[in-house]
Amino acid sequence: KPIQKLVVQAEQLNAEIQLGDNPQLIRLAAQGKVHCEEQATPELASGMSLDCEVFQVLDGTTENPIARIEGREGSPARVMARDAQLVGQLIEIHQGSNLAFIQGAGQMTLPRPQTPQAPWFVQWQHRMRFDGQQATFDGDVVARGSQAMQAGEQVRFHATGDSLNVIFTRYISFKQPDGADDVALRELLFQGKCSLRSETID
Q1: Mind listing the pLDDT tens digit for each residue in 86-100?
Q2: 181, exposed or middle or buried, with CB in 10 Å at 0-12, 13-18, 19+?
Q3: Calpha distance 170→165 (Å, rounded)
Q4: Rounded CA gap, 45 and 67, in Å?
Q5: pTM of the model
Q6: Radius of gyration of the chain from Cα atoms?
Q7: Residue in 108, 15, 25, 31 with CA at minimum distance from that of residue 69
Q8: Cα–Cα distance between 39 and 16 in angstroms, integer?
Q9: DSSP label at 4?
Q10: How far apart are CA 25 and CA 150, in angstroms?
C-alpha cells in the first residue's frame, strides 16, 4: 500500500505517529489558519486539499479513520479534490465507511470538463450526507447546472426545494479518490415544495 504524504500548515499542530517500516498517523490536531495538502503520487494523480480553522484526524490506524474539518464564523471550511469542492462550517469524513457529513449550511461544486463554465452546483441550509454514490441535502436546497442531451443540445436548469437526493454516475472512494471517468449527476429527486426553471440551447 503506498504511503500517503500530507503537508499540514497551521498556527498550532500536534500529531501522534506510529513509527516503523510503514509509519502511520494515529492522531492529528491542527488549529489556526490550517492548510493541508495530500501530495500526488503515481497511484494518485491528484490529492485532496483543505483550508479551515480546525483539522482533526482520529483513529488513524483503524479501518475507519475520521477527519473533522471546521471553519470559523464568516469563513467556512473548504475541501477540494480534482476541482470538486465542499464548503461547510463542520465537515466530517469517515474514510473506512466512505461517509461524509456536513452539519449546517454548505455548498458542493462538481466540475464538468466538457463545459467548465457550467459546473454542477448545490447549496443547502441544514445538512448533507454522502456515501460515495448518493448524496442527500436538506433545507432550502438550490441546484443548478447543465446537461447534454442525445440530440446535442444543452439544457440549463435551476431548481429549488426542501430536500434533494442526488445519485452520481459512479462511486467515489475517499481511499482512492481518483478514477478514470469524470463524475456527473445521474439523477436528482426533490422532495417537498420545489420549483424548476430550464432552457434549451442548440
Answers
A1: 999 999 999 889 999
A2: exposed
A3: 15
A4: 21
A5: 0.83
A6: 18
A7: 31
A8: 20
A9: P
A10: 48
